[in-house]
Structure formats: structure tokens, C-alpha cells
Design a protein that fits this description.
This protein has 196 residues and is mainly β. 0% of the residues lie in helices and 46% in strands. It has a five-stranded antiparallel beta sheet, with no helix packed on it. A five-stranded antiparallel beta sheet has the order 6-7-8-9-10, with no helix packed on it. Strand 3 and strand 4 form a beta hairpin. It is elongated.
Length: 196
């Protein structure tokens, strides 16, 4: 999860502070990869651009440009390949329509107009706010949902199984398990079984 919490002043410019809670699960229990502040963003609403500042950079970088046309080439900030805009449509979010720019990779497989990601005005990439925009292979990121002012403003119906946050756990009951060891006594090799 990424979220905005508070503002910060960097070189005289106001940015929104970005936080991230990121886990990875390779078939087992999720492993915490990162939790905390990871950068800041600002919008230039008139120019329709979003800028990103990270502790890794000495200057801000262009994250999104929403002044695009079909055929325009964009390079992604977050180490993805170059992409081109293959078509533009719109999506209804909250109370208005937002432009959606569908992207296809340059010089990579598959060739052609196979759009695999989109940039949505006022939202960002369908791969996540600052995630690389590339064709997923064995792993990848997706923007499952976007919350604004306590409401789900965007839900990706293909990926988001649930767009709700756990905000409270009322009670956790301890589980009673019985442990069986056999043979007992043992000569060194034994079996451990648990009750269901």
C-alpha cells in the first residue's frame, strides 16, 4: 500500500509525503519488504504533470505527464522500458470522466498495439503510483484500488479481490492444539502430530 500523509518543504517547494507498506509472498506467508516514508510528490495542475522526489535523487523527476497524444513516447521514471501511447479513452471516477492513456512497450515483445498498462489522469499508473511500468513476467505490481477521502474512487475489477482495509480486530481467540509424540519413549526417531 502507498499513501499520502502530510506535506514537506523541499528546496522551497511543497510536496506531499509518500509512505509505503510493501510485502512479498512467494507462495507462503507475506514477508515485509518495506514500511515507511519513501519519497514525495507534487502536481503541476496547469501543466498536467506530476513530479517525484526521493532520497535517492538530488532533484525532482517527472513521474507523469498527462498531456499525451496517440503515438507519443514516454520513458518511465521507475526503471521500466520506454512505452508509447496506443489509444486514449476515459474512465468515470468519483464525479467526472478522466482521460486514460493506454501504453504499449517500444522494442519489446509483444510488438504492436497490445496495451498492457494505462495512465489515468489524477490517479497515475495502473501498475501503482511509483512502480515500474513494464509487462509483468513472473512478478509485477498492479493498482488494485485507490481511496480518496475515505471512499474507493477506483477499483480494478480484474485484480482487486477486496478494496477494504482492516481497521479493527475485535478479538483474537487463542487456538488450542494438542501435540502427540510417538513413540514415547523414543530411541531418537519420533513423529509429531497436531490435532485439528
Amino acid at each position: 500500500w502507498d499513501w499520502i500523509q502530510g506535506d514537506t518543504l523541499i528546496s522551497g517547494t511543497t510536496y506531499h509525503k509518500l509512505y509505503r507498506y510493501k510485502t512479498c509472498s512467494g507462495g507462503g506467508l507475506p514477508v515485509l519488504m518495506f514500511n515507511g516514508y519513501f519519497g514525495a510528490i507534487r502536481q503541476d495542475i496547469i501543466q498536467k504533470k506530476v513530479y517525484y522526489f526521493s532520497n535517492s535523487y538530488s532533484t525532482e523527476k517527472l513521474l507523469y505527464d498527462f498531456n499525451l497524444s496517440i503515438g507519443d513516447t514516454i520513458s518511465t521514471l521507475m526503471n521500466g522500458p520506454n512505452n508509447r501511447v496506443v489509444f486514449i479513452d476515459s474512465i468515470f471516477m468519483e464525479t467526472s470522466f478522466r482521460k486514460r492513456f493506454w501504453l504499449s512497450p517500444l522494442n519489446s515483445f509483444p510488438q504492436g498495439d497490445s496495451a498492457y498498462a494505462a495512465l489515468i489522469e489524477g490517479l497515475g499508473s495502473t501498475h501503482g503510483l511509483t512502480e515500474p511500468i513494464y509487462i509483468p513476467f513472473e512478478s509485477g505490481s498492479v493498482l488494485g484500488c485507490f481511496w480518496k477521502n475515505g471512499n474507493a474512487a477506483y477499483i480494478d475489477s480484474l485484480w482487486a479481490l477486496s478494496c477494504s482495509f482492516a481497521t479493527e480486530i475485535s478479538e483474537v481467540l487463542p487456538r488450542q492444539l494438542e501435540l502427540f509424540i510417538s513413540p514415547n519413549p523414543s530411541s531418537g526417531i519420533f513423529t509429531i502430530n497436531f490435532s485439528e
